[in-house]
């Protein structure tokens, strides 16, 4: 089976991207912490963005 890692697929920033996603050189506790922080931040940010888009829309329709 032909298996390439992301390091080789993305030439310029591949190794830096892998280390950023993993949280360190190897997969471990730092990886879990990194993904947890990323998910909580992104989900909160997306929720806030959608709410801020929703309020003007319902205000314009006269529902608020």
From TrEMBL:
Annotated ranges, domain Cytochrome b/b6 N-terminal region profile: 9-62
What's any one GO cellular component for it? membrane
GO BP of this protein: respiratory electron transport chain
Q: Which GO terms describe its molecular function?
A: electron transfer activity; oxidoreductase activity
Q: Where are the transmembrane segments?
A: 6-22, 34-55
Which keywords annotate this record? Membrane, Transmembrane, Transmembrane helix
Q: Name one Pfam family in it.
A: Cytochrome_B
What domain of life? Answer: Eukaryota
InterPro entries, alphabetically? Cyt_b/b6_N, Cytb/b6-like_sf, Di-haem_cyt_TM
Q: Which PANTHER family match?
A: CYTOCHROME B, CYTOCHROME B_B6 N-TERMINAL REGION PROFILE DOMAIN-CONTAINING PROTEIN
**What name goes with this protein?**
Cytochrome b N-terminal domain-containing protein
């Amino acid at each position: 089976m032909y298996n390439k890692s992301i390091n080789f697929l993305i030439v310029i920033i591949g190794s830096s991207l892998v280390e950023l996603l993993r949280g360190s050189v190897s997969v471990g506790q730092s990886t879990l912490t990194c993904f947890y922080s990323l998910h909580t931040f992104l989900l909160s940010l997306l929720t806030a963005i959608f709410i801020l888009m929703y309020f003007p829309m319902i205000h314009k329709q006269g529902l608020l």
